[in-house]
Specification:
This protein is mainly alpha-helical and 416 residues long. 68% of the residues lie in helices and 4% in strands. It contains 21 helices and three strands. It has a three-stranded antiparallel β-sheet with strand order 1-3-2, covered by helices on one side. Strand 2 and strand 3 form a beta hairpin.
Length: 416
């Protein structure tokens, strides 16, 4: 076979390896799956799985294919529940993909049946004779042995997505017990996004997500109380890690769309922004969030920015504050003259050595902006800033005095 491949590569493919690889994939190996007769003895879980595949018109295929599900349709909802149950059993036939849109009725899956999944089905048979019973037993076992909050919150989401009503009660009880004993604020913050998705989008799948509500309320309150102390005395690496958690937590609060929970979160951010000795990255980001949510008016935001970028402060701390404040978008600078002026004065007043040290950080901050924003900022810097232009436009020009200077200027420029 090796000699035959070499000959085909030289004669038929003209030395190109890509066509030969395609021949091997499609003909030598192939992607067609074999079948066994229905009379072949099989384990109960295999039989139930095959029945559901036929009922849902979801045959296993060796090649990859994309599947878009509309959860408002009963057949697509049943397909989604089957795929989630199989994933819970360790049979990853389908992998859920993030949808680009904001609709909550759509799910996108990438399906590919691998030969080793048949072995996984046999191994999963010990949990039950049907996919539903096996997934329920597996979820209960994972809840019983779960010791960490984050895996348990993921399990709650998986259990609800898989529609396992006989397991959700035990899973929620275990989650509440572990959450009550967890005092680590970062772990509490990590657990919220999955629960927020369950609360926000659970009704789309016609699941009862009300069991999660009081757990989420307790988590948000505890995080709000403990966040200032958890953010104190952090070095650059720890501050960057906490920054990511605060950002994800803020997104989860936005997903919930609960006014009371949002108010609790804003109070925590306000305490964080006023905290003395806080790392600049966190202080700047807290100030940015409070400004976006209307808590800090523009004059107060400008005052805080002026204090953070004061010449008396440490340049590295000021640069970290600026990175947090401008994270993700520079539109604030383009639309607020006061903030632009403060930043312009701070950069202009940096000593040469300090500017060289901070240049990589500043470049990283501005590199995160979308290309159109960077272009607008660059144009504004090149023209000296809109504020300076406005001041120059308001200055009155004495035409008589200007006329007396023109001959000298022309001579200096070599025009005469």
């Amino acid at each position: 076979l090796e000699e035959l491949n070499e000959a085909a590569l030289a004669v038929l493919c003209h030395g190109e390896a890509a066509p030969l690889r395609l021949i091997e994939e499609q003909l030598t190996i192939g992607e067609r799956l074999g079948e066994v007769p229905d009379r072949t003895p099989m384990l109960p879980l295999q039989q139930d799985m095959q029945r559901q595949q036929k009922r849902l018109r979801l045959p296993p295929e060796a090649g990859q294919r994309l599947l878009e599900l509309d959860l408002r349709k009963p057949n697509d909802l049943d397909r989604s529940q089957l795929l989630h149950r199989l994933n819970l059993l360790g049979i990853p036939w389908g992998r859920a993909e993030r949808a680009s849109g904001k609709g909550t009725f759509k799910e996108h899956w990438r399906l590919q049946w691998q030969p080793e999944l048949a072995v996984a089905v046999i191994e999963a048979n010990l949990w039950g004779n049907t996919v539903l019973d096996a997934a329920t037993a597996r979820a209960r076992d994972l809840a019983q042995h779960g010791e960490q909050l984050r895996p348990l919150t993921d399990l709650v989401e998986q259990t609800l997505l898989a529609e396992l009503p006989d397991a959700i009660g035990q899973v929620m009880d275990r989650l509440q017990n572990v959450a009550a004993l967890t005092s680590d604020i970062p772990h509490l913050m990590d657990s919220l996004p999955a629960l927020a998705r369950v609360l926000r989008y659970g009704n789309v799948r016609r699941t009862d997500a009300g069991l999660v509500g009081h757990v989420v309320d307790g988590l948000i309150t505890r995080v709000a109380i403990g966040l200032p102390s958890a953010c104190g005395s952090l070095d650059d690496e720890a501050a960057a890690a906490m920054f990511d958690k605060v950002r994800v937590m803020n997104a989860a609060i936005g997903v919930l769309q609960n006014p009371e929970q949002a108010a609790i979160w804003r109070d925590a951010l306000a305490k964080l922004a006023d905290q003395a000795g806080l790392h600049g990255l966190l202080a700047g980001y807290a100030c940015r969030l409070l400004f976006e949510q209307g808590v800090l008016p523009p004059p107060e935001t400008a005052r805080r920015m002026g204090l953070a970028l004061s010449p008396a402060g440490e340049p590295a701390q000021a640069a970290a504050w600026l990175e947090g404040f401008l994270h993700g978008s520079g539109l604030l600078l383009l639309h607020n003259e006061a903030l632009w002026g403060i930043l312009d004065a701070w950069v202009d007043g940096l000593p040469g050595e300090a500017f060289t040290q901070l240049l990589p950080l500043l470049r990283r901050t501005f590199a995160s902006f979308p290309a159109p924003e960077r272009r607008q900022i660059g144009e504004r810097v090149r023209h000296g800033g809109a504020a300076r232009t406005a001041i120059a436009a308001e200055t009155e020009v004495d035409a008589a005095r200007a006329d007396r200077v023109l001959p000298v200027v022309a001579r200096l420029l070599g025009m005469v």
